[in-house]
Design a protein that fits this description.
about 100 residues, elongated, 5 helices, mainly alpha
Length: about 100
């Protein structure tokens, strides 16, 4: 049976030795280390945020009761029907202010 060549990943590396238990205990999370070395601004720019960023002109989720025929008519126009309803309401809002 032939001997297997050792894989490069399994060989010891003088430039990157294995960590000791003490080194593992003292290790910091990556963002904390970046904060300590480069400052909080750098760490904050790398920090992941959950979800989509908030828009400045955020919509409000509101329940609105509409007649079935009105809703069906807008839905039959296809994609973007909610935006079109919003546009009609906005135009009517400006008319009422006059």
């Amino acid at each position: 049976m032939a001997k297997k060549k050792s894989d490069a990943a399994t060989r010891l590396d003088d430039e990157n030795p294995e960590w000791t238990r003490d080194e593992i205990k003292r290790a910091l999370p990556a963002l904390d280390a970046i904060d300590a070395v480069f400052g909080p601004k750098a760490a904050d720019s790398l920090r992941r945020r959950r979800g989509r960023p908030a828009k400045p002109d955020r919509k409000i989720n509101q329940t609105l009761r509409l007649d079935a025929d009105v809703l069906d008519a807008y839905r039959q126009e296809g994609k973007g029907w909610q935006t079109r309803i919003n546009q009609v309401l906005r135009e009517n809002m400006h008319d009422r202010r006059k």
